[in-house]
Specification:
D-Maltodextrin-Binding Protein, domain 2; ten-stranded mixed beta sheet; 289 residues; elongated; alpha/beta; disordered N terminus; 2 domains
């Protein structure tokens, strides 16, 4: 009886080991090659990052966004990153300026996602960061906007890993005080918070509230007056411009295509990314080298 029990236990352990192998991480494949069903992670409707990403990669054909219905939807850059970090088979996309070592950015068409490659035009997946206003801007709003486009403001943009715009020169504050609400894109939020902190050091009597939502909300709330200044990580739509919004580009940002650090895939073509996000490519083995 003891021998029988021992034999059954041995079989059980062997079966457990086999199950473990079949549900292992991407790095468990042959010679480290990724394989397994791809988990597509995307942003919510209204996200400027999603809008720019789907347009630049041809996922949006001009009539509709063809992102696969099986995609997991996240509502911010941080949630996108933690989702991909926690899933060996996931793929997502984020603002390049938010990239850290918790995930891996793949090359797109053989080009690494870097500030230099965006500036020289070799990395094509990039978009503008905008602030948008309507009607007459308050003295404080204008002063803060002047700071953003000044030498000092654009230095903050560059320090945060984004491509700065041509500056208007050294900043001279008009001394305006009061409250200012800036809101919208979660991609623009991190650099806007840094800009607000830097401006506060110059104008301590200004109170700037930076509120995170998405690009569409940023535009809509700027139109309605809920936000004094809206933030968008995409170009404005015709309807938004017709409603009286005026955009100002404050930086250029790349969109990094990210995978889990355990994924051996380092390079994807634009067509492969499109295929993954439209549901035509569903297994990492189909894009692994």
């Amino acid at each position: 009886m003891n021998k029988f029990i021992k034999g059954m236990l041995a079989l059980g352990l062997s079966a457990t080991a086999l199950v473990g192998c079949s549900s292992g991480t991407a790095e468990d494949g042959a010679e480290g090659t990724a394989s397994g069903t791809i988990t597509v992670v995307s942003r919510e409707d209204g996200s400027g990052t999603r809008g720019a990403f789907t347009e630049l990669l041809g996922i949006d054909d001009g009539e509709k966004d063809n992102t696969t219905s099986s995609a997991q939807i996240t509502n911010s850059t941080s949630v996108m990153m933690t989702t991909v970090e926690g899933n060996d088979y996931a793929i997502g996309y984020i603002s390049l300026g938010s990239l850290n070592d918790t995930v891996k950015a793949v090359k797109v068409d053989g080009v690494e996602a870097t500030q230099e490659n965006i500036e020289n035009g070799e990395y094509s997946v990039s978009r503008p960061f905008l602030i948008c206003t309507t009607g007459e801007v308050s003295e404080l709003g204008q002063d803060f906007m002047n700071f953003i486009m000044s030498d000092e403001g654009q230095a903050v943009v560059a320090e945060e890993g984004y491509i700065p715009m041509e500056t208007t020169g050294t900043f001279e504050s008009n001394g305006a005080t009061g409250d200012l609400t800036v809101g919208g894109s979660s991609s623009v939020t991190p650099v806007m918070e840094k800009l607000a902190e830097a401006y506060k050091e110059i104008n301590a009597d200004a109170n700037i509230s930076v509120q995170q939502s998405d690009s569409t909300s940023g535009a809509e709330n700027a139109i309605s007056g809920v936000y004094d200044i809206g933030m968008c990580s995409r170009e404005l739509t015709e309807d938004e411009e017709a409603a009286g919004l005026t955009p100002t580009t404050i930086a250029i940002d790349g969109i990094a295509v990210i995978v889990n650090n355990n994924n051996s895939v380092d390079d994807l073509t634009s067509d492969q990314i499109k295929g993954i996000y439209t549901g035509e490519i569903t297994d990492w083995a189909d894009v692994a080298e």
